[in-house]
Design goal:
The complex is a heterodimer. Chain A is mainly alpha-helical. Chain A contains ten helices and no strands. Chain B is mainly alpha-helical. Classes of the chains: A mainly alpha, B mainly alpha.
């Protein structure tokens, strides 16, 4: 008859180790699936590998602490926007603490060398350099939206959740970001 | 940039913001840290449970769980005895005989549950 007691909320603590093991397993999957996303976001956000590594590490440590609650509140939705939002908040804290902008927001040579060497790339190298330079001049929120869309491949809904905006506002934000960047790149 | 159509511009943007692979040493460091955290959490939980069980105030929950189990068991015996009450009523000669048959059925059901538990 002990099984009847096991189902009561009070006795949940007695199955806690199993719950914890499951959470750890699921967190490992989340980590493996999104390490590259978080690192890419961090890199394009802070502009250098050293700070990007710190930011990625802090993001996953904070995510680990709050994973149980986030999972319970996600209602089965993907947790990538939640992870990116943590990275976004930590990056904002980093800038606030240092009270300065990164000296080199995006390291052009590293980014270019990290890309695939296709004929298209060789042909469009000048355009790419102009785009990368242009991204630096965008307002922070627009730059973030572009990073999420093009570096991480997030859709409007995911970006909206990560930035705490509505889907409609995110669509407008992305449209304006691309338009502004096109204008920046077009100016001779 | 006029020569680059809108879709081409987005394609170039995708190339410009290509995903960046994390360095191997970051992966190793993070995995070690997370493993340590997991181990520490399990150790902490186990020691917390042991500490909790040494404190008599924490014995209330297991006792309550047992009590709930016992109550549920009693309810189950009553349900099973009631299920065959009509048959016993039909077979009994008088109210005293029915009461004795019901008592014996209840004792039998309780013994079955104890054996299964």
């Amino acid at each position: 008859m002990a099984t009847n007691g096991d189902r009561s909320p009070d006795s949940l603590r007695w199955v806690e180790p199993h719950h914890k093991a499951r959470l750890d397993r699921e967190f490992s999957e989340l980590y493996r699936s999104h390490l590259r996303d978080v690192y890419s976001y961090a890199y394009y956000r802070v502009g250098n590998h050293h700070d990007a590594e710190d930011l990625t590490e802090q993001t996953f440590l904070q995510a680990y602490r709050h994973f149980d609650r986030a999972q319970a509140e996600s209602h089965g939705r993907p947790l990538r926007p939640w992870l990116i939002r943590i990275a976004h908040n930590l990056a904002a804290n980093l800038y606030r603490d240092r009270s300065r902008r990164p000296q080199t927001p995006i390291d052009d040579s590293t980014v270019l060398s990290a890309m695939h060497t296709t004929e298209d790339l060789v042909e469009g190298r000048d355009e790419l350099a102009r785009i990368i330079a242009g991204i630096k001049h965008l307002p922070e929120e627009r730059r973030e939206a572009l990073i999420m869309r093009f570096a991480l491949g997030m859709d409007n809904r995911e970006i909206a959740r990560a930035l705490g905006k509505t889907d409609g506002a995110t669509k407008v934000l992305l449209h304006r970001a691309i338009k502004q960047l096109e204008e920046i790149v077009t100016v001779p | 940039m006029n020569e680059i159509a809108h879709s081409d511009f987005e394609r170039m943007l995708r190339l410009a913001l290509a995903p960046v692979d994390p360095p191997d040493d970051l992966k190793t460091r993070l995995e070690l840290t997370l493993q340590e955290l997991t181990d520490a959490a399990v150790d902490e939980l186990e020691s917390w449970e042991l500490r909790a069980m040494r404190d008599p105030r924490n014995w209330v929950r297991p006792v309550m769980a047992t009590a709930v189990g016992a109550t549920a068991g009693t309810a189950l015996v009553i349900l099973r005895v009631r299920a065959h009450q009509k048959k016993r009523a039909a077979a009994s000669r008088n109210p005293l005989d029915l009461a004795q048959r019901t008592m014996r059925a209840a004792a039998s059901e309780a013994r079955k549950l104890v054996r299964r538990g």
